[in-house]
Design brief:
2 copies of one chain form a homodimer. With 296 residues, chain A is an alpha/beta fold. Chain A is globular, with a radius of gyration of 18 Å. In chain A, β1, α2 (41-59) and β2 form a beta-alpha-beta unit. Chain A has a single domain, classed as Aldolase class I (TIM Barrel), CATH 3.20.20. Chain A has helices spanning 5-14, 41-59, 67-71, 74-90, 105-116, 130-143, 159-162, 172-183, 205-214, 252-255, 265-289; strands at 20-24, 62-65, 94-101, 121-124, 146-152, 196-200, 220-222, 246-250. The first copy, chain A, has an 8-stranded parallel beta barrel with strand order 1-2-3-4-5-6-7-8, surrounded by 7 helices. In chain A, α5 runs parallel beside α6 (130-143). Chain A contains 11 helices and 8 strands. The interface between A and B is large, with 56 and 56 residues.
Chain lengths: 296, 296
């Protein structure tokens, strides 16, 4: 089997890249005005992504297209999503399909087949339990793919159900985290991390340590930095001393960091990506300096 | 505003239709061999659905295309989903888009925009809390649409998280059910039911009464009858004395009730639809006979 998603991610971080994930949430009205003017929204999105991918690929290992913004454009948007995933992988990037699917077994199998055709890793929703996750696990075990299970999301309403406490005092998010740990058994990379990971919002840094303990081998996908209020400096517990264990995502702060009419939008994206890289490198240096144990 | 989804559903049930929902989960290998042979899988699906829709529309008020089976065919499948929804609505059917979406606010807004373009009602996942639901609620309040929130699903693994008990002894599903009740405030139809409903699996008939009490105004979407083991005769608590309050879904037992090579597949579907109608009418007669109170 070729190197798995987690192995390839660890290779890139080992060779000096930051564990940065660039979210692709394209809104037509926020695209640079000069990119493919007069074409359809879906075509303009593909043209924009095609133009920024080399810049991203020099600075970050992973992109995360959010399929909702493509679905908003119907079948043409769906085709654009497929093309964005294809271009990113052809350019050497790993792709997390942010699809948040979750359904009963036979339907989950259809989703897994549909979405692993385009992405190396997927986000999935745990509400339906193990049989909704199983078809995705099969692809993790057999084809080197990975999933990030929603555990503790970054949005204000997340506490409503995720922070309910069970009779033993554990939050629902913690119970899901322990399931993530079990689902990932037998999928560990040489670096010690499993192919079954978790989404934990940066806005919940106060819960990060407890969740990390419940799922020590789970690679984390951490959204919520920047516009949503999470701070990179609060994310030390996500990483081990080698910088393995998580990717931090930023979407709008990267690919909407300019006004649509700004002719210097390429430079602004490069500067935003460089600043993101520098912040993550600071965090990892800090993490490495304060741990004797290379594994969390 | 034109009549809402819930009002139109109640009209159809009042005029003698059964509260039946026909699930459209098309698998190419299970289509009748004689339908559009040699064409693409997506084209064959559309041709099959086009042919069965009049039969369905004479017997049932609602269809529920499950988008996973369309996504499995990529962008062509997505286009087929749009076409199936369009054909069903043009044929007088109500359409529940079984999409189970759920994401943070701005992304949920993109999903709501994307999917209410094709369907009268949608299934949504509650794990992310209120702000993930809010953009869908706006369409319920302002445009007569409806949502069915996953509360207690029909699959074997559902208990894993949905049946966790909180410190007050309520299951997660019951907590979600109470949220469904609140979300539906101010959306009640003249018949007394809200535009915010819930998915409750027929395999969990033992929990149906408690969930109904937690959300007395919520229209229910009940899957899990037939292949999954749920029985229609166990579903009395879902309905009021008028037959309002729920739709029962069957998918494979309707549209895969024949072998692909069977030349009489049309007759078999008609017979399956007729039997489904008769079973539901028996249930509703039984329900009406045993209640003095027309409202649950």
């Amino acid at each position: 089997m070729a190197a798995s998603y987690v192995e390839r991610l660890e290779e890139r971080v080992s060779s000096g890249m930051s564990p940065a994930c660039v979210g692709i949430d394209p809104r037509p009205e926020r695209l640079p005005a000069g990119v493919a003017p007069g074409r359809s929204a879906a075509e303009r999105i593909v043209a924009f992504v095609r133009e920024v991918l080399p810049s991203i690929a020099r600075r970050a290992p992973v992109v995360k297209p959010n399929i909702a913004f493509f679905e908003a454009l119907g079948a043409d948007g769906w085709r654009a999503y497929e093309e964005v995933c294809r271009l990113a992988r052809a350019g050497g990037l790993l792709v997390i399909g942010d699809v948040k699917r979750g359904d009963i077994g036979s339907t989950a199998a259809a989703y897994a087949r549909a979405h692993f055709a385009h992405a190396d890793a997927l986000t999935v929703n745990p509400y339906l339990g193990t049989d909704a996750i199983e078809p995705f696990l099969a692809a993790c075990r057999e084809a080197g793919r990975a999933i990030y299970v929603l555990v503790r999301t970054s949005n204000p309403g997340a506490a409503m159900f995720q922070s309910l406490r069970d009779t033993r005092g554990h939050t629902v998010a913690e119970v899901v985290a322990r399931a993530v740990d079990r689902w990932g058994e037998d999928t560990a990379s040489p670096g010690g991390f499993a192919s079954v990971g978790a989404v934990v919002g940066a806005t919940r840094a106060d819960e990060l340590l407890a969740l990390r303990r419940a799922m020590p081998r789970a690679p984390l996908l951490i959204p919520g930095v920047g516009a949503q209020g999470g701070r990179i400096t609060d994310l030390r517990a996500a990483f081990d001393g080698r910088g393995f264990g998580a990717v931090v995502n930023q979407s709008r702060a990267m690919l909407e960091c300019f006004e649509p009419g700004d002719p210097d939008w390429r430079d602004r994206i490069d500067a935003a990506l460089d600043a993101f890289h520098a912040e993550l490198q600071d965090l990892l240096r800090d993490r490495a300096a304060t741990t004797a144990n290379p594994h969390p």
